[in-house]
Amino acid sequence: MKDEPMKVIRVIKAFKTENATYDLDEIYGVRASLAKQFVKDGLVEIVKVDLEEDEEEEVETPTGPSWEDPELGTFHFGDFGYVKRVELPAFKAFNFRARRAKSPQTYPLQFDGDTADQLPTPAAVALAKLLLANHAALVPKVADALWADFTGSGPDSGMYWHNDLDQVAQGMESGKPPRSARDLFKLMKLSDIRIKRPSGRSAPVLAELNFRAAFEEEHGVGVLTDGLEVLGMGYSGEAEPFK
Fold first, then answer.
1. Which of 110, 127, 141 minimizes the C-alpha distance to 205?
2. Which of 26, 105, 117, 228 has the fewest Cβ atoms surrounding its Cβ within 10 A?
3. Cα–Cα dist 243/231, whole Å
């Protein structure tokens, strides 16, 4: 047993053993055999540890041509639009693989564009300001909307997971689906926000909140919003309005 490998677990149901106490949502390192038993008993889930991901690097802001808004500040053009890192403290509730950082967590906010002369439109700027001001109210709405899609009680996203928790479970390390919208907070983490260019003249300007997700690690999850409500979802960067 001395050389038995270790596993990292996240507690999904608080419990005690003869030798230790395991608190809800906390992360521990235990022997592989113990981890296997705890998973079997429905007490924990295995956490995939990627040292490079764990040391989540702060992606540098582009240093290309700049554009400035009196309220939003200065953005710089990168490969796909004008970008600036912004603080959205309420989105820390989504804490999948989150690490504790001394500095405030920031996220890239991007106005999509192909060239530097494609400046953000007034409608895009207005949406960004609304989203930043209203972001705390969006946090529970994102979780509730995704859970409603999983359970079939809400609008149809057109994704494989609509009304199919078994499909969600297949993407989980534990093989078990989330049990409620609340569970989604520990299974997702916001990575960036995109203010998308409308697909047509009559189409509204929407923002896409992109998340890393335990149940969809390959593609991630994108959530469309008008700053007030959730209007669609899909893979990260590819979200579409609800059907």
1. 127
2. 117
3. 10
Amino acid at 187: L
Distance CA 197, CA 202 (A): 12
Contact in structure between 76 and 82 (CB atoms under 8 Å): yes
Per residue, the 3-state secondary structure of the chain, as one string, reads: CCCCCEEEEEECCCEECCCCEECCCCEEEEEHHHHHHHHHCCCEEECCCCHHHHCCCCCCCCCCCEEEECCCEEEEECCCEEEEEEECHHHHHCCCCCCCCCCCCEEEEEEECCCCCCCCCHHHHHHHHHHHHHHHHHHHHHHHHHHHHHHCCCCCCCCCCCCCHHHHHHCCCCCCCCCCHHHHHHCEEEEEEEECCCCCCCCCCCEEEEEEECCCCCCCEEEEECCCCEEEEECCCCCEECC
Each of the 243 residues of the chain gets a pLDDT tens digit; together they read 445 566 777 788 889 888 788 888 776 667 778 888 898 898 988 765 443 444 444 556 677 899 999 999 999 998 899 999 999 999 989 988 766 554 567 999 999 999 999 999 999 999 999 999 999 999 999 999 999 999 999 999 999 999 999 999 999 988 999 999 999 999 999 999 999 998 777 889 999 999 999 999 999 999 999 999 999 999 999 999 998
User: How far, in Å, CA of 27 to CA of 17, rounded?
Assistant: 16
| 66-69/44-46 β-pairing | unpaired
Q: What is the pTM of this model?
A: 0.75
Tokens of 34: 């113990």
